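Colleagues,

For the teaching module next term, I've prepared a clean inverse folding example: a structure given as tokens, and then the sequence designed for it. I'd like students to try predicting residues themselves before seeing the answer, so please don't circulate the second half yet.
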């Protein structure tokens, strides 16, 4: 398929030779960089460098996979929610995550990739999803803690994406952020209820959940900036507006005050206020654990991918029926 996006694709160089780049390609790239520098948004049909398109497909599809896989740890608790109200809230939240996955897959499709290709990449391990969803949800307090810390981290990362240079992604993010903000508040409120009106055992359950989710939550922001291969280019192109470390720091600073209000602590003796920096210092993050989980060896990786594989296979008849229905409707419309 010939797309405008491919107009600006740089040809591969033969080994040991400089790539041949036409004057036209260089001019197209310069026009693109000038638009980015002027703060313009890029729309789906606009010319764009192939590397920009690929970076977006990678990030948006992985974001979509995260939203969908992210339903699994919470889905585990729908039948065990303590009250009807909590069950209804949890169901609504999980449905929202499915919606976020759909908006994001649709945004990625505007870049010329299909939902089927993106799913194949997830299922055969070429595409990632967020490390955080490879941890188990052991108690009801995990539901509140995911809302507070995981959705809280997601919002911190996603608000700047509402100004992403790629307009279809930015538009999807505006709606997603509004919903994530409800998710964060419901999680915090559920924990507050347990901490203020609960028993000693319930308070201990909340603290235990916070102990287990704290480090994985701050890993969600991705590797440190100096070990992040994509950040520099993504920031030059206005895809990412704030670096992994800067977002992680903002999240930690906000979470400390919220933890104090809640009456819980974080499992990090190195987490102290630094007067000179006007920010919190924190202890060392176990990046070996992060890469192990990202690489497929976390506590629940196999279970999560197994569930996605099963859903994709068992949903094949639905996709076939929808395509057959669409073809029949088209044929009827043409006959009319
Ligand atoms: N997990 O060079 P960078 C949510 C990978 S949504 C796994 O820094 P980049 C909602 C990264 O992909 C949560 N892999 O990469 C919810 C790259 O590998 P690649 C998801 C990670 O893209 C809540 C490599 O490491 N949010 O929670 C992770 O510039 C509750 C090098 O990293 C998004 O996806 C990780 N944590 O920055 C749902 C937001 N971090 O692709 C249900 C959009 C990094 O080259 C319940 N995405 N990697 O093979 C982003 O902002 C960025 O993609 C980052 C990574 C910041 C995640």
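(Answer key — instructors only)
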């Amino acid at each position: 398929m010939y797309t405008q996006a491919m107009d600006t694709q740089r040809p591969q160089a033969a080994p040991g030779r400089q790539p041949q780049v036409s004057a036209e390609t260089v001019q197209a790239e310069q026009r693109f960089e000038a638009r980015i520098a002027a703060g313009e948004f890029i729309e789906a049909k606009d010319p764009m460098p192939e590397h920009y398109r690929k970076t977006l497909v990678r990030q948006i599809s992985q974001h979509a996979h995260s939203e969908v896989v992210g339903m699994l740890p919470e889905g585990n608790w729908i039948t065990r929610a303590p009250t009807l109200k909590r069950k209804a809230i949890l169901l609504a939240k999980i449905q929202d995550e499915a919606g976020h996955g759909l908006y994001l897959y649709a945004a990625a499709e505007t870049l010329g990739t299909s939902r089927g290709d993106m799913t194949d990449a997830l299922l055969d391990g070429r595409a990632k999803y967020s490390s955080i969803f490879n941890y188990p949800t052991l108690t009801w307090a995990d539901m509140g803690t995911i809302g507070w810390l995981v959705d809280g981290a997601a919002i911190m990362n996603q608000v700047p994406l509402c100004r992403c240079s790629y307009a279809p992604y930015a538009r999807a993010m505006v709606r997603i952020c509004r919903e994530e903000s409800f998710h964060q508040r419901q999680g915090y409120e559920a924990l507050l209820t347990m901490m203020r009106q609960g028993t000693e055992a319930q308070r201990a359950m909340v603290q235990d959940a916070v102990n287990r989710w704290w480090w994985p939550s701050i890993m969600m922001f991705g590797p440190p900036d100096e070990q992040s291969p994509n950040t520099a280019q993504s920031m030059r192109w206005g895809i990412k507006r704030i670096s992994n470390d800067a977002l992680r720091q903002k999240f930690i600073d906000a979470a400390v005050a919220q933890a104090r209000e809640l009456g819980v602590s974080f499992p990090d003796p190195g987490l102290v206020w630094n007067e000179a920096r006007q920010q919190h210092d924190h202890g060392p993050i176990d990046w070996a654990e992060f890469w192990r989980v990202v690489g497929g060896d976390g506590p629940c990786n196999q279970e999560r991918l197994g569930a996605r594989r099963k859903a994709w296979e068992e949903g094949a008849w639905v996709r076939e029926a929808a395509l057959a229905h669409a073809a029949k409707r088209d044929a009827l419309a043409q006959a009319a």
